[in-house]
Amino acid sequence: MYQRKLEKDIRCPLEYGMELFGGKWNSRIICVLATLGTLRYSELRREMGNITDAVLAATLKELIAGGMVERKSYDEIPPRVEYSLTEKGASVVPILQSICQWAGVFYKEEEDTPMVQCQKCDHR
Question: First vs last Cα of the chain: how many Å apart?
Answer without folding.
Answer: 38
